[in-house]
C-alpha cells in the first residue's frame, strides 16, 4: 500500500481537478441525484417471501437449468435411474420441482477467491475436462451463487462480466498485478492511490461519507470489475441488463455483509459485530435482511437514497450510482476493524471463526499495521472522519423510521456495514438457506483458513451457521463442531450434511432445508493454503490452484473414489425425489451412506490440520515448496 499519507497529499492536489458529478456514471465515482421515479415500492417486508422480480427470474432460470441438469445427469449414467422419466416429471411440475442448487464461496481473501473459482471451473460444462470427468454441467444447473469477502470477488466478477469461463476471467483479472501498491501508474489495469483518492473525493463532495471500503473497492475493481477505470460505471444493479442474466444463463448472485451497531463491543477504538449481527443480503434487485433487526428489502438500484418510514425524504433527491459493484465488493470485504484489532492484540482477540492470523508456515500479520495506520490517518486528515466512523462502509439507512425495524436500526441515519465474515459465518449460506429460496443442495466452498496454524479449515464457519439457523428456527443440517470435523477428515474430504432429515434443525420432512456439501480447500495436488492477504498471484500458481480444485471436485478424476461424481449427482436430485414421487436408487443409497455424515461425534482433542498432498502423500510442504516458489 506504501505511504498513504504522501498519497493523500497527492490527492489534495488532485482535488483541484475534481469534476462535478455527471449523470454519466463512467465519468465520476460520485453518485448522482435525480428526480424520484413514480411507482417505486421503496420497502417491502421479508415476510412476503421472494420479491416478484426474483420469483419471475427464478422461474425463467429453472427452464434453462432443467436442460443443463438433464444432460448432466445423462452423462452420469446413474444405475437404475430413469433420467428421462425424472426430466418428464419435473417439466410436468411446470418446472417448479426442478431442484434449486447453489454454490457459496467463503471469505478468505484471494485464497478463497481463486480456489473457489477453481471449484466453479470444475463444474462448468464449457470446460471439456469437466465434462469428461462428469462434474461439468453442475454450474449450469445452479440457481444461486453467493459470496462474501474474498468469495465476493468471483461472485461479483463473474456476474458483472456476463459470466465468462474461469480461464477467460483470469485474463481479465491479471492477478499478477498488485493493486494495493501505490507506486503504479494509472493504466487500464491498475491505478495510483492518488487517483483512487480523487474518486473518493468526488463521492465525498457529493455528500456521502467514504471509507476504506470505498478505497479497497476501487483498487479491487481494477482486478475484478470489467470496464474502464476499474469498472467505474458498473453498478451491482446493472447486472440485470446483461444478456446472460436476462436470458437466465447465469446463476443469481447474492453478496453477504454484516453490520455494526452501538452496543457492539469495542477494542482499540474499533467495534466488531456481535454473533447476533444482522446479516444483509444484496442481489441485483434488492438490498436488505431476512431477519434480525430489519426484515425488509429496498431496491438495490436506488441505494443511497434517503428514506424515512418507507418514503423518500426529498422527491428531487433520489440517488443513482451508489451501488457501484466495486463498492459493494469492497464493503463485503472491508475488515479494517478486524485487521487492526488482530494486529494490536497479536491475534489474541478473534472472537469469531475467522481466518488465521498467521501466514502459511510463517507468523506475521497479513495486513501490516503500518499500512493500516497510514490508511486510518489519511481518512482522518482528509475526510475529517474519526476511527469509529471510517472503519465501516457507510450506507444511508433505507430502513430508517420503519416500525418493522428494531430500534437499533430504526433510529439510525446510516448503516455501518462490514465484511460478511465478521458474523462468524464465513461461508455465505444465510441468504441461500432462507426458506423462500427453497434450496435443495448448497455446495459450501470453505477457504476461511480458520484451521490454525496452517490456514486449512476446521468447519467452524459452517458450525456457526448451524447454530444461527437453529436459534432462528430455520431448517438446516445439524453440523458437528470442529473436533468431529477434523477427526473425521472433513477438512480434506467431501462430506454431505442433512441427508437424513432426522439430522436437520427442524426435522421437518416437508420442509427439510438443503443438503449441504462441505468442501474445505485442501491440498490434493498443490498446497493452496497461501495467505488470504497474498495480493499477487502468478499465472503459474493460478494454474496449480485450478488443477488442485479440479482434483478436489473430481476426487482426483475418480482415482480416490470411482463413484464420487455419481454420488454428487445423487445429492443434487435427492430432495426433489420426494416431490415428484420417485425413490432413491440403491446406488444413491450407497452413496449417501458413504458420504453423508451419520450423526456420530468424535469429540477427542484433534491434532493440528497439516495434511500432505492427498494425491501424492509423500510430498510434504517443505519439499514441494522448493520447486513451487509461490
Ligand atoms: C406455468 O408457469 C407459467 C409461468 O411461468 C404460467 O404462465 C403457466 O400458466 C403455468 N402453467 C401451468 C400448467 O400451471
Ligand atoms: C510510470 O510512468 C513513468 C513515465 O512513463 C515511467 O518512467 C515509470 O517507470 C512508470 N512506473 C511504473 C511503476 O510503471
Ligand atoms: C459502462 O461503460 C461502457 C463503455 O462506455 C459501456 O459499454 C457499458 O455498457 C457501461 N456499463 C454500464 C453498466 O453502464
Ligand atoms: C438497464 O438499461 C436501461 C437501458 O439502458 C437503463 O435505463 C436502466 O437504468 C438500466 N438498469 C439498471 C439497473 O442499471
Ligand atoms: C443472541 O441471540 C440469542 C437468541 O436471541 C440470545 O440468546 C443471545 O444472548 C444473543 N447473544 C448475544 C451475544 O447477544
Ligand atoms: C409509517 O408508515 C405507515 C404506513 O405507511 C404508517 O401506518 C405509520 O403510522 C408510519 N409511522 C410513522 C412513525 O410515521
Ligand atoms: C431536495 O433535493 C434537491 C436536489 O438535490 C435540492 O436542490 C433541494 O434543496 C432539496 N430540498 C430540500 C428541502 O432539502
Ligand atoms: C503484542 O506483542 C508485542 C510485541 O511482542 C507486545 O509489545 C504487545 O504488548 C503485545 N500486545 C498484546 C495486546 O498482547
Ligand atoms: C477452529 O477454528 C476456530 C475459529 O478460528 C478456532 O477458534 C478453533 O480453535 C479451531 N478449533 C480447532 C479444534 O482447530
Ligand atoms: C434416518 O435416520 C433414522 C434415525 O436414525 C433412521 O431410522 C432412518 O432409517 C434414516 N432414514 C434414511 C432414509 O436413511
Ligand atoms: C485430472 O484431470 C485434470 C484435467 O485434465 C488434470 O489437470 C489433472 O492433473 C488430473 N488429475 C489426476 C490426479 O490425474
Ligand atoms: C518456500 O519457498 C520460498 C522461496 O521460493 C521461501 O522464501 C520460503 O521461505 C519457503 N517456505 C518455507 C516454509 O520454507
TrEMBL record:
UniProt cross-references to PROSITE patterns, sorted A to Z: PLA2C (PS51210)
GO CC aspect terms: cytosol
GO molecular function list: phosphatidylcholine lysophospholipase activity; phospholipase A2 activity
Chain ranges of the PLA2c domain: 35-602
Gene3D superfamilies xref list: Cytosolic phospholipase A2 catalytic domain
Entry keyword annotation includes Signal: yes
GO biological process: glycerophospholipid catabolic process
Catalyzed reactions per annotation: a 1-acyl-sn-glycero-3-phosphocholine + H2O = sn-glycerol 3-phosphocholine + a fatty acid + H(+)
Signal peptide bounds: 1-21
SMART domains found in the cross-reference section: PLAc (SM00022)
EC number(s) given by UniProt: 3.1.1.5
Keywords attached to this entry: Glycoprotein, Hydrolase, Lipid degradation, Lipid metabolism, Signal
SUPFAM superfamilies membership: FabD/lysophospholipase-like (SSF52151)
UniProt entry tagged with the keyword Cell membrane: no
Pfam family, one: PLA2_B
Protein family: Belongs to the lysophospholipase family.
Protein name: Lysophospholipase
Organism of provenance: Glonium stellatum
Amino acid at each position: 500500500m506504501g505511504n498513504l499519507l504522501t498519497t493523500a497529499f497527492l490527492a489534495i492536489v488532485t482535488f483541484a481537478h475534481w469534476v462535478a458529478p455527471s449523470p454519466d456514471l463512467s465519468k465520476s465515482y460520485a453518485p448522482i441525484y435525480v428526480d424520484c421515479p413514480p411507482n417505486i415500492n421503496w420497502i417491502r417486508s421479508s415476510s412476503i417471501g421472494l420479491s416478484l422480480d426474483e420469483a419471475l427470474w427464478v422461474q425463467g432460470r429453472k427452464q434453462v437449468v432443467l436442460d443443463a441438469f438433464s444432460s448432466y445427469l445423462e452423462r452420469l449414467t446413474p444405475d437404475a435411474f430413469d433420467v428421462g422419466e425424472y426430466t418428464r416429471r419435473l417439466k410436468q411440475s411446470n418446472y417448479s420441482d426442478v431442484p434449486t442448487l447453489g454454490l457459496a464461496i467463503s471469505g478468505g481473501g484471494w485464497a478463497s477467491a481463486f480456489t473457489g473459482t477453481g471449484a466453479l471451473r470444475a463444474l462448468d460444462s464449457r470446460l471439456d475436462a469437466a465434462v469428461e470427468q462428469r462434474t461439468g454441467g453442475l454450474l449450469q444447473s445452479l440457481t444461486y451463487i453467493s459470496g462474501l469477502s474474498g468469495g465476493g470477488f468471483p461472485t461479483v466478477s463473474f456476474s458483472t462480466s456476463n459470466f465468462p469461463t474461469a480461464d477467460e476471467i483470469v485474463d481479465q483479472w491479471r492477478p499478477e498485478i498488485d493493486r494495493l501498491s501505490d507506486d503504479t501508474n494509472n493504466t487500464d489495469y491498475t491505478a495510483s492511490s492518488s487517483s483512487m483518492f480523487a474518486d473518493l473525493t468526488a463521492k465525498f463532495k457529493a455528500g456521502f461519507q467514504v471509507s476504506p471500503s470505498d478505497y479497497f473497492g476501487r483498487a479491487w475493481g481494477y482486478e475484478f470489475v470489467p470496464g474502464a477505470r476499474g469498472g467505474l460505471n458498473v453498478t451491482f444493479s446493472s447486472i440485470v441488463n446483461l444478456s446472460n442474466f436476462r436470458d437466465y444463463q447465469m446463476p443469481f448472485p447474492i453478496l453477504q455483509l454484516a453490520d455494526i451497531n452501538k452496543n457492539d463491543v469495542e477494542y482499540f477504538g474499533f467495534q466488531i459485530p456481535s454473533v447476533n449481527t444482522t446479516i444483509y443480503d444484496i442481489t441485483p434487485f434488492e438490498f436488505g435482511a431476512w431477519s434480525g433487526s430489519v426484515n425488509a428489502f429496498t431496491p438495490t438500484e436506488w441505494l443511497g437514497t434517503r428514506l424515512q418510514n418507507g418514503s423518500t425524504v426529498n422527491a428531487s433527491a433520489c440517488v443513482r450510482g451508489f451501488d457501484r459493484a466495486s463498492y459493494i465488493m469492497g464493503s463485503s470485504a472491508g475488515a479494517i476493524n478486524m485487521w487492526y484489532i488482530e494486529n494490536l492484540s497479536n491475534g489474541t482477540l478473534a472472537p469469531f471463526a475467522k481466518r488465521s492470523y498467521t501466514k502459511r508456515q510463517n507468523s506475521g500479520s497479513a495486513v501490516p499495521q503500518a499500512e493500516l495506520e497510514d490508511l486510518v490517518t489519511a481518512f482522518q486528515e482528509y475526510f475529517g472522519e474519526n476511527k469509529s466512523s471510517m472503519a465501516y462502509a457507510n450506507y444511508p439507512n433505507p430502513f430508517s423510521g420503519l416500525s418493522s425495524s428494531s430500534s437499533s436500526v430504526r433510529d439510525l441515519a446510516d448503516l455501518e456495514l462490514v465484511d460478511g465474515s465478521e458474523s462468524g459465518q464465513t461461508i455465505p449460506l444465510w441468504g441461500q438457506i432462507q426458506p423462500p429460496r427453497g434450496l435443495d443442495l448448497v455446495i459450501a466452498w470453505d477457504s476461511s483458513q480458520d484451521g490454525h496454524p496452517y490456514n486449512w479449515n476446521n468447519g467452524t464457519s459452517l458450525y456457526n451457521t448451524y447454530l444461527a439457523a437453529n436459534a432462528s428456527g430455520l431448517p438446516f443440517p445439524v453440523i458437528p463442531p470442529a473436533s468431529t470435523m477434523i477427526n473425521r477428515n472433513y477438512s480434506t474430504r467431501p462430506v454431505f450434511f442433512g441427508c437424513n432429515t432426522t439430522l436437520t434443525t427442524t426435522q421437518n420432512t416437508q420442509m427439510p432445508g438443503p443438503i449441504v456439501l462441505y468442501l474445505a480447500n485442501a491440498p490434493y495436488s498443490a498446497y493452496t493454503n497461501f495467505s488470504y492477504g497474498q495480493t499477487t498471484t502468478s499465472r503459474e500458481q493460478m494454474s496449480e490452484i485450478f488443477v488442485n480444485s479440479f482434483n478436489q471436485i473430481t476426487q482426483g478424476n475418480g482415482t480416490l473414489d470411482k463413484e464420487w461424481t455419481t454420488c454428487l449427482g445423487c445429492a443434487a436430485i435427492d430432495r426433489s425425489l420426494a416431490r415428484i414421487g420417485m425413490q432413491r436408487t440403491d446406488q444413491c443409497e450407497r452413496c449417501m451412506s458413504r458420504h453423508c455424515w451419520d450423526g456420530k461425534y468424535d469429540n477427542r482433542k484433534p491434532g493440528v490440520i497439516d495434511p500432505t498432498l492427498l494425491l501424492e502423500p509423500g510430498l510434504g510442504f517443505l519439499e514441494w515448496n522448493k520447486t513451487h516458489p509461490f
